[in-house]
Amino acid sequence: MKKMNLICRNRKNFLYNSTLLRYGINKNSEIRFQTDYAQFKAGNYKISGFNPLTVGTKLLISEKKGILPQTSFLFNLTLPYFGNKNLRPTNPAPLIYLLLQNDFTQKINVCYNLGLEYDGESSIPNEFTAICFGYNSTDRLSWFIENYNYFSDKIKPEYFIDFGIAYLFGKNIQIDLSGNNNLQNFEKYFMVGFGFSWRIPK
Q: Is 0.90 topped by the overall pTM?
């Protein structure tokens, strides 16, 4: 789920009420819809409004088996037709991820992702890599720490780290708290997020 408060020295970015709707078609596939209300401030400059709508799908390719990871494919497409005109991309912006996960024990798992992200302005994508370590303290309480990175011919590589905690209430409601930092700009970049997830049984 996308959610953040980004605070820099002269710039403040907020995402409010970030919403991701996921509908499971069957046990191997889902469709996804996402948007959020954004506000960007830099000095006297300010933009507020809805970000463009993103639609997508996630497909399970294979279950984990021995040392072979569980493998899924994620495709999102951000559309340039909805939301604040100052926040829309010029063209449709696809995102393509390969998601892999191994479980070391019942409590410890590692996820590693590879992908390409387009911004809707350039034909050159950002390359994305991530590795995330998760620990389930109990059936309800879990922790994670993740390193993720962006590479592109257009900009210098960027390296990030985030961490968080999630708690499951009952079977269908979860809350989470997370933080994030840019490893190259540690003092000027910080992000915190709070999330609420509700699973609606069929």
A: no
